[in-house]
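Renewal narrative, Specific Aim 1. Our central claim is that a sequence can be written position by position from structural information alone. The example that follows is taken directly from our test logs and has not been curated for this report. It begins with the structure tokens describing the chain, in the order in which they were read.
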């Protein structure tokens, strides 16, 4: 079991002062194994804060990031799940599922994580799973006139099963929604009388997060 924080479009300090306090209270060190960030971190202090939550941090470059050292995309493998991460401004029209699906095929991934729209989305399409964590700070975006709902996601990966919990700050309260994706995998051929291993089911809840040692690399 691997618990992954999916977060992005923070835009600190240009469009938002900080993460909402109720999100900071949830994102404590030692509970999350890995962080996948869709970019627009925008300053080093925010990046270093993410590294206090988990040492294994992957950040892709957003269109407002100050650091040119972030890669434009990343591919992470949690066998048998392959996860691709992009900011999302590469897709035209922005957030278009067909464009995202073409990118997922190009990257050869089962799950594509993208941002840029500042709006949460988790949907299975064309046999793949697409997740947009939205903006963790609720930062404004020029393409949307209304108020942006702050959000992030936790992805619980157990074998071929990916359970995504989205956390949204609505009217001052954190609301949690659960979405499940199962990758279709070929069952291994039984050896003699042994039967094929069944796909595991997720048993982790947002309130039961295991501790993890922090290891990773520095991108800044």
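The sequence written for that structure reads:
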């Amino acid at each position: 079991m691997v618990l992954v924080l999916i977060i992005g479009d923070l835009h600190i300090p240009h469009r938002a002062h900080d993460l909402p306090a109720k999100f900071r209270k949830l994102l404590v060190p030692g509970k999350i194994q890995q962080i996948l960030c869709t970019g627009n971190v925008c300053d080093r202090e925010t990046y270093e804060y993410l590294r206090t939550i988990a040492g294994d941090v992957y950040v892709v470059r957003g269109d407002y990031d100050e650091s040119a050292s972030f890669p434009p995309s990343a591919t992470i493998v949690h066998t048998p799940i392959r996860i691709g991460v992009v900011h999302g401004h590469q897709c035209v029209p922005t957030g278009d599922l067909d464009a995202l699906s073409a990118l997922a095929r190009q990257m050869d991934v089962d799950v594509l994580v993208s941002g840029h729209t500042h709006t949460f989305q988790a949907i299975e399409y064309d046999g793949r799973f697409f997740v947009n964590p939205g903006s963790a700070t609720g930062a404004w975006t020029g393409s949307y006139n209304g108020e942006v709902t702050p959000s992030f996601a936790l992805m619980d990966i157990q074998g071929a099963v990916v359970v995504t919990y989205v956390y949204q700050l609505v009217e001052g309260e954190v609301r949690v929604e659960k979405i499940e994706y199962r990758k279709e995998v070929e069952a291994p051929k039984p050896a003699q009388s042994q039967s094929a291993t069944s796909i595991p089911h997720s048993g982790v809840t947002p309130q039961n997060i295991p501790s993890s040692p922090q290891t990773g690399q520095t991108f800044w």
